[in-house]
Specification:
The complex is a heterodimer. Chain A is of the alpha+beta class. Chain A has two helices and five strands; from the N terminus they run H-E-H-E-E-E-E. Chain B has two domains: 40 residues; 117 residues, Ribosomal protein S3 C-terminal domain, CATH 3.30.1140. Chain B is rod-shaped, with a radius of gyration of 30 Å.
Chain lengths: 177, 165
């Protein structure tokens, strides 16, 4: 009789142990699942940002070679990644007309060599280094940039010549996350 | 009494087993996490398209070396250097090329030990013979490269640039 009670008690303890184990394992796997889900969600957010940045990067190259920016044939033969400084100054004046045209919220060009931190206005052109074409006050993704050649016509004692400097074209899209 | 002892011992064994499983799963999770983070993109890293565009834009840069045809671009200066030319002010075109290219690259990226860009190496090859090599900083295994070629006066010019990070 005593042996039977002991065996029953043992079986009950075993069942309790098993239920406890199943519950613990169940919650453990739910926690692991939640952990991976949060990582996956984070990755999804990252890849959406990456896609936005890649789009911006492609747009930088497209912009530099678009008719509104590119040198065309003004400096001899057609050049890649060449921006006409005069066109840019004209575009700066009419930036409002193009504000929705490129689908970005910031377009900026910075002279790298020779370096200058003066913002370009009609009065100080061409002895300046920063040209802000679009500068909307919204939350943006990190800047995408590309090197370009910033060319203009310059006069010297010998006459008019083409002067090209090194610059960085930077654009930023709106952060919609 | 003996049976109770046996039951207790079995319970202990199961708990040890459970602990082993948790430790194993945690190790696997840690390994997976490490793998995921090691694959994440480094910020501030240089992209190949940037190196490519820097070469293209630099070749168009107008230097202060003036000759009878006007101010020379880097591309013209490479050609002038190949024919051992000089600027109007008697400066050696190769020396001007050297210093201008170095300035262009160092102004484009902040090169240094603590910076994302550790160094650079630029090579100019004319008809498969190395004509000019410029170096600064450290050469590492992690680099992005760009290349641009052009032909002039029946000679082939190739410009290679590696940016080490």
């Amino acid at each position: 009789m005593v042996r039977k009670i002991l065996t029953n008690k043992g079986a009950q303890i075993k069942i309790q142990q098993m239920i406890f184990m199943i519950l613990v394992v169940f919650f453990f796997f739910i926690l692991v699942g939640l952990f991976f889900l949060s990582i996956a969600m984070n990755n999804l957010k990252k890849s959406s940002i990456d896609l936005g940045e890649k789009g911006s990067m492609l747009l930088v190259s497209k912009l530099a070679n678009s008719p509104e920016f590119s040198c065309g044939n003004a400096f001899g033969t057609s050049r890649i990644n060449c921006i006409d400084f005069d066109k840019l100054m004209a575009l700066k004046k009419n930036a409002g007309t193009y504000s929705e045209f490129w689908g970005v919220v910031k377009i900026e060009l910075r002279k790298i060599y020779p370096e200058s931190n003066i913002e370009c206005q009609s009065a100080n052109y061409p002895t300046c280094g920063i040209i802000k074409i679009l500068d909307k006050n919204v939350k943006t993704l990190p800047y995408s940039s590309n090197f370009v050649s910033l060319c203009r016509k310059e006069t010297s004692e010998a006459g008019i010549y083409d002067k090209c400097e090194l610059a960085r074209l930077m654009i930023a899209s709106q952060d919609r996350t | 009494m003996k049976e109770e002892l046996i039951l207790g011992k079995r319970g202990q064994e199961e708990m040890v087993g459970f602990a082993v499983i948790i430790v194993l799963v945690s190790v696997i999770l840690l390994v997976l996490l490490g793998f995921m983070f090691s694959n994440s993109k480094e910020t501030g890293a240089v992209e190949s398209y940037e190196v490519e565009s820097l070469i293209q834009s630099s070749l168009q840069y107008t230097t202060d070396c003036e000759t009878y045809i006007g101010f020379l671009s880097i591309e013209d200066l490479i050609i002038d250097c190949e024919s051992d030319g000089k600027c109007i002010d008697e400066r050696d075109s190769c020396k001007v090329l050297n210093s201008t290219l170095n300035d262009l690259i160092t102004k484009s990226w902040n090169i240094g030990e603590k910076s994302a860009v550790k160094g650079y190496k630029l090579k100019i090859i004319v008809n498969e013979a190395e004509r000019l090599t410029l170096k600064e900083g450290n050469e590492t295994m992690n680099y992005k490269g760009g290349f641009q070629d052009f032909s002039r006066r029946s000679k082939n010019y190739e410009v290679f640039l590696n940016i080490y990070s």
